[in-house]
Amino acid sequence: MTCHSPRWRRASVLLLLPIFAACTSPASPAAAPSSRPPTSASPSVGVTPDGPAEITLAFGGDVHFAERTLKLLAEPDTAFGPVAEVFSAADLAMVNLETAVTTRGTPEPKTFHFRAPPSAYKAIAAAGIDVVTVANNHALDYGRVGLSDTLDSAAAVGMPVVGAGHNAAEAYRPWVTTVKGVKIAILGFSQIAELSSSWAAKDDRSGLAMAFDTARVTAAVKAAKAAADVVVVYMHWGQEYNKCPTSQMKTLAKRLADAGATMIVGTHAHVLLGDGWLGQTFVQYGLSNFLWWYNDAASNDTGVLRVTLRGPAIAKTEFVPAYINRSTGQPIPSSGAQADRIAAKYRGLRGCTGLSAAPPA
Predict the structure, then answer these.
(1) Full-model pTM
(2) Hey, is 308 helix, strand or coil?
């Protein structure tokens, strides 16, 4: 698969594994840090003459193009607005693309349906985003025809997609890329129950990588860990408008951590959830709406999770506050009192997560 970002030279593939049953612009705010000392790493992995290579990862939440955000695709190169600077400054950036990219298909039996034209991928790439997950409750809004178009349109422009496929082997397969000598594997899973049985990928059926198949999910994470230095799991999970992770989320997070996930990033609930450490695994339970279609006063606080690696070890995590513009739906990096308010709110969300502020010594 060809690389679409010129920021650094990397090799990336969809790993063929057996599957079993960031700096900001000057106007951007100071991020809310949650630091840890780097863990020891193999001297041959991501090491330069000056020590371990520093790698920045950036993650945003739910993105789709409908109503006010659909209008942004008239100029896809600027669709994300100033937050693109945060993504472009990172070595690797990712969001959840919560829409079918299609003009075809039949609406599924559900309340909300989202689809976007192929120019959505141009907007994503122009923002400096390197990979998307579509393991969510909207990727099949227009059935398997719509999903096929979503995957094929991404392949046509070289945009890596995780969490879905033309069969289960593809859906549960990680995207693997090498950044500054560090091999990073990224997986996407959904834990949303709506239509999950009919949307799940099977050996002979297209669909999503569903986390309800815990054996397959843990096998996928273990296989990725065996083949990569860093494993990122991007989850679509949780209860809408619940600022605390559910017991189902906590149980799965423990399984993913035990299987070898380096970090777990989540979204879906339309509100921010907290972050912290589950043993040696960093967990961010919910990044909320991001580039968002609906002017929802309860969920306009958002931001970018920025993770700094030194070699394959997590050295620092930060939350860069942003606020969704009520006119355009774009997440605008915050400053001043607004940034302070969102950062303080975010810090307070850890209390109900059961996560620690730092990993074990």
Answers:
(1) 0.90
(2) strand
User: Domain residues for 209?
Assistant: 12-39+48-352
Q: How many CA atoms lie within 13 A of 339 on its CB side?
A: 15
The tokens for 18 are 């057996």
Q: Where are the beta strands (DSSP E) in 38-106?
A: 47-48, 51-52, 54-63, 92-97, 100-101
Residue 325 CA to residue 328 CA, distance in Å, equals 6
Strand segments, DSSP code E, in 42-144 are 47-48, 51-52, 54-63, 92-97, 100-101, 115-116, 131-133
Tokens of 182: 């560090």
- Per-residue pLDDT in tens (0 to 9) along the chain, 361 residues: 333 343 543 445 554 444 333 333 333 344 555 444 444 445 567 777 778 999 999 999 999 999 999 999 999 999 999 999 999 999 999 999 999 999 999 999 999 999 999 999 999 999 999 999 999 999 999 999 999 999 999 999 999 999 999 999 999 999 999 999 999 999 999 999 999 999 999 999 999 999 999 999 999 999 999 999 999 999 999 999 999 999 999 999 999 999 999 999 999 999 999 999 999 999 999 999 999 999 876 789 999 999 999 999 999 999 999 999 999 999 999 999 999 999 999 999 999 999 999 999 8
CA separation for the pair 310, 288 (Å, rounded): 27
Number of compact structural domains in the chain: 1
* DSSP 8-state symbol, 356: B
Provide the CATH number for the domain around residue 149.
3.60.21.10
Residue 353's φ and ψ, nearest 5 degrees, are: -85, -25
